[in-house]
Amino acid sequence: MNENNNERKKIEEKLRESEIKYRTLFEHAADTIFLVDPETGELVEFNNKAYENIGYTRDEFKKLKISDFEVIETTEEVNKHIEKILRDGFDTFETKHRTKQGEIRNILVSSTVLLIRGKRFIQSICRDITENKNAEMKILESEKRLKDLMEAVPIGISISNLEGKISEVNSHAVNLFGYNTKEEFLNVPAQVHYYNPKDREKFVNLLEKGIVKDFEVQFKRKDGTMFWGALTSVTQTIGDKTIFVNTFQDIDERKKAEEKIHYQAKLVENVSDAILSLDIDFNIISWNKAAEKIYGWKSDEVIGKNLSDVIPVEFPKDKREDVLKDFFEKGYWECEGIQYHKNGKPINILSSSTIIKDVNGKPTDIVTINRDITKRKKAEVKIIKEREKAELYLNLVNVILVALDRVGIITLLNKKGYEILEYEEGELIGKNWFETCLPPHDRERVYDYFKKLMNGELEIVEFYENPVFTKNGDEKLIAWSTVLFKDNYGNITGLLSSGEDITERKKAEKQLKESEEKYKNLSVELETILDIIPGMVFCKNKDDIVTRVNQIFADSLRLKKEDIIGKTTFDFFPLEQAKKFRNDDLEVITSGKPKLNIEESGDFPDGKMFVITSKVPQYNDKGEILGTIGLTIDITKQKIAEQKLRESEEKYRNIFEKSSNAIVLLDFTGKIIECNSATETIFGYSKDDLIGQNYLQLPFYTESMIKVLKERFQAITKKSGLKTQELEIKKKYGNIARIKTNISYVKIGGQNFFQAIIQDITEQKNAEEKLRKSEEKYREAFERAELYKDLFAHDISNILQNVKSSLGLLSMWRNNPEKLNNIDEVMSIINDSIVRGSKLVSNIRTLSKISETGGLLKNLELIQILKEAIKFIRKSFPGKNLNIEIDSKIDGAFVEANELLMDVFENILFNAVKYNKSLKIEIITRLSKIVKDGINYVKVEFIDNGIGVPDVMKENIFKGRSTRTEKAHGMGLGLLLVKKVIENYNGQIWVEDRIKEDPSNGSNFIILIPEAI
Amino acid sequence: MLLSAYGFKVIGIAKNGEEAVQMYKSFTVKPDIIIMDHRMPIKNGIEASKEILEFDKTAKIIFASADNTVKEHALSIGAICFKSKPFSNDKLIKNIKKALELSQSQNV
Predict the structure, then answer these.
(1) Which residues have a Cβ under 8 Å from the Cβ of A972 and sit 6 or more positions away?
(2) Residues of chain A under the 70 pLDDT cut
(3) Looking at the whole model, is its pTM more than 0.80?
(4) Cβ contact, residue pair A793, B67, below 8 Å
(5) CA A851/CA A828 separation, integer angstroms
(6) Phi-psi bin for A719: left (phi > 0), alpha (psi -120 to 50), beta?
(7) For residue A615, which of A630, A718, A797, A866 is within the disulfide window of CB 3.0 to 4.6 Å?
């Protein structure tokens, strides 16, 4: 317990001590310290300095809030600031507080968030920095004034250290060195600003000895150009650092002037020009040593003499008067001329004369300076020649030559350069190479390289390729080679580049590469193409060595390609053939002309081949003949086909020509293209008459036939089926022929034609007609024979039947006296049957006679024959009561007939008696002449009073067999015979009723027989 | 004359086949026998026989012709016999009598 009490007391003691310590620090701190309740903004605790520093009493201050003395922040801003401190935990910032007296104080505030008994408070320590601020302002003002001063002075000022790091510079120095900004200048070490790097070392050495004053040195501008400057430097040590305060003065003009003065002075010291002074009339006043040396005249020899007397001037180009006039007008004169040495030797002089005037402007003297330029002239001539030579070389070389100075300005460009860049000669001198002659996209890269090259930062690349940009906007690729120009100090002053325009070469290389690639493909393609060419392809050189063949060639020799290539024609073919092939090759090689379509034959492994070969010369790219290229086509099959065709043609030509049929080939207009010999025979026209004529316009055919033929041609064109047609034509000399035509559609050599095959069928037709007539005749004869046979058989059978029946009756009645009377009647029947049989036989004979002879006709007197016939009938029917009269209206009737006319009359009269049941048989024969259808006939009518002919029988009464009439029955072939005989006379016969429309009351048989002429 | 000589009565003679048919049809008392020639105008013996037999199938026709080729045809259509010319009187009479006997036996 005691230990715990002691421990707690110790802790409490320590706390008390700590509180006292911090309370003392709090109360006696030099800075204001206050504690702010962030919720209310009230000051809950503060030290004495808090109210003392801003002129308040404790009580007054206690009532204030921060915003009451805060100047910069408004109440709202103060509250936001409190929130920020609460969020971040602390903040340090500057602000301003207002004292009770209204004075504004600069305050640096450091605020921290404290947690006291679970509540957050902000403790702020405020230091019054007003005095510090004032001092700072004064320093800034001082610095500004210094800088203003640095800027104001017309000299360059910089501050640098020993290592060359420049920490300060004024604008003048920046401008002097050609930089754009101070920052740019400050980034460049001091050593870079020296044109000669050794001068920097010299300067540092001098500076180590103390102040460097007016150290004249060559500086280098940013663009690399040099200028003279006077450098004054003071060393200052600040702390442990040493700095150089430098001033620069541009003394470039002065140095140049000094150099000039120096040069002039040196010139004067070493003057080699003759210096003369003359009065206004050109009398010599003074004559220097150089004049003595140049002209050989001593001073005392020429003083007072007129210049023209001593050293007259020859003006090669101008007249003396014009020169003097110009001189006095302008006041000076300068020219080159020729004067003479005392010894007479000509001297080239460069003369410069000036008129010296007094204060009033009046000419008083003339000063003439004459320089002996004889050597220079000679040198000039030589130089000109050399330059011309050099220019010639420059311009002759096929490369661009360009010289650039350090900044890239073109100082030289040869003719080729202008040509490549497409500018007029001289147009580019003075222009920036990079801006003018490089393509925009490449300028920066090349210029960077160039700058580094000029600054010695890069080693030169011996060969490289860069594009140029022409005036016309094209890019060309140049292969460059560059050397650097250096001055005596080793400084790079520019470069000279020579370049070759390799644009075309590159293109060509590219094309070549592409071409090679293409050629590789082409070669494969060519090989393939060659292999599929339907012929033997071969290439041979001048020495007959085969260099290439296609697969067909190899196959035809039954070899591989590689076994053929490299060998000669003589390795594959018999000697004589090889010689022939070789001679053709040599002809092509020698003449340079192709030899085409050589028809030849060769012995190949497969046998003899007929081929057609074409050979052409093979050239190289220089146009030289390398050998021959040949193509051989196998025409063996074609040859065989041709032979067959020839044979076939010959065969068919023979058939064509020997054919008994006319064969006519027509085009579609009907024009005769070809015809054979038979055509001439059939139509009676020669080939010359026919070929070229229109088939349808030849006088073979009638209009109607032509129409038919045209329709047939049209039908053929439509490929309709056609039949052979028979026509009748009139031949050339009028005789008629019958032809059979067969027109067809033929294709010959790809062309369509009509082919007419015409057969002369005149004889055939005649024969056919004869045959037809013969057949008809024999058919008629056969029918007639059949008829006669039938009739004869029938009629004879009936006659025999009558006889047989009669004999049977006679036999039955011979012993019967009652029947004796009937015997006569039966005998009469037998007798009648015999007569009928006789007549039948007679008729058959007559008919046969007509058929055999055709009946030869003669002029006969008809009436007499008629009378004979009547007489015969009367004798034939003695028991009949007959009245037969002739009623003739003509005296004589001569007709074309024969002896059968008697049979005709007898037959008709016989029937008229036989088929008449009248007790008195009346027959009138009436004769007359008539004309019918232009023919004169004798008309004979037999008018009887018999049983008549029914109408149904009138038409058929003269026909045989089944249509035989009753009248014909019993007398056999009577009326059939009559009709045949009359028709043989070209006459006519028919039957009418004796009384019109009464067929049962007699008939009238009418006969017309042509009257004899 | 022949038939009359043998005691037969001829009741009609036709000039042709057509007339024969018409005549037969017109008879009220039909003949016992018809002797039919073949070759006749207008209508031949075959045609006339056909029509008569169609009209009266009991008609007795003796066909007579010199043309033996029609014999089969004539018998097939109903002719009772065929006589080939020239034939004897006796044979004809014999055939007529036979036909009459046949006709009488049919009527019984």
Answers:
(1) A791, A792, A795, A836, A839, A840, A843, A844
(2) 1-4, 261-270, 315-318, 359, 393, 395-396, 519, 522, 717-723, 784, 787-788, 791, 850-855, 959-974
(3) no
(4) yes
(5) 34
(6) left
(7) A630
Q: Give the closest-approach CA distance of B41 to chain A in angstroms.
A: 6
Residue bearing tokens 């022939």: A580
The reported pLDDT for the residue numbered A270 is: 54
Of A808, A962, A965, the CB nearest to B88: A808
3-state secondary structure string across A175-222: HHCCCCCHHHHHCCCHHHHECCHHHHHHHHHHHHCCCEEEEEEEEECC
Q: Check CB contact of A949 with chain B, cutoff 8 Å.
A: no
DSSP A278: E
Give the integer Cα–Cα distance in Å for A992 and A988.
13
Residue A855 to chain B, least CA–CA distance (Å): 30
Q: Among A793, A825, A962, select the one facing B66 at the smallest CB separation.
A: A793
Bridge partner list, A46? A34
| Amino acid identity for residue A500 in this structure | E
Assigned token pair, A499: 């370049």
Q: How does DSSP classify residue A568?
A: B
Enumerate residues 6+ apart whose C-beta is below 8 A from B68. B84
Q: Give residue A987's pLDDT.
A: 93
Cβ separation A812–B44 shorter than 8 A: no
Predicted confidence at residue A964, as pLDDT, reads: 37
Question: Is residue A980 within 8 Å of A849, Cβ to Cβ?
Answer: no
**Distance between CA atoms of A883 and A279, rounded to whole angstroms?**
202
SS3 A789: helix
CB of A424 within 8 A of CB of A415? no
pLDDT at A315: 67
Q: What is the pLDDT of residues B46-84, one digit of tens each?
A: 999 999 999 999 999 999 988 888 999 999 999 999 998
> What is the structure's pLDDT at A803?
87
The β-bridge relationship of strands B34-37 and B61-65 is parallel
CA angle (A104 as vertex; A99, A105 as ends), nearest 5 = 90
For chain A, the residue count is 1013
Kindly state the DSSP code that residue A963 receives in the 8-state scheme: G
Helices (H), A659-686: 677-683
CA angle, A473 then A479 then A483, to 5°: 110
Q: What is the distance between the alpha carbons of residues A736 and A557, in angstroms, rounded to a whole number?
A: 68
DSSP state for residue A1011 in the 8-state scheme? B
- Residue B12 touches chain A, beta carbons under 8 Å: no
pLDDT digits (tens, 9 = 90+) for A449-503: 999 989 888 888 878 888 999 999 999 999 888 888 888 888 888 998 988 888 8
Say how many C-beta atoms besides its own lie within 10 A of residue A613's C-beta. Answer: 20
Q: What secondary structure, in 3-state letters, does chain B show? A: CHHHHCCCCCCCCCCCHHHHHHHHHHCCCCCCCEEEECCCCCCCHHHHHHHHHHHCCCCCEEEEECCHHHHHHHHHHCCCEEEECCCCHHHHHHHHHHHHHHHHHHHC
Q: What is the pLDDT of residue A988?
A: 93
Q: Which residue of B has its CA nearest to A822?
A: B1
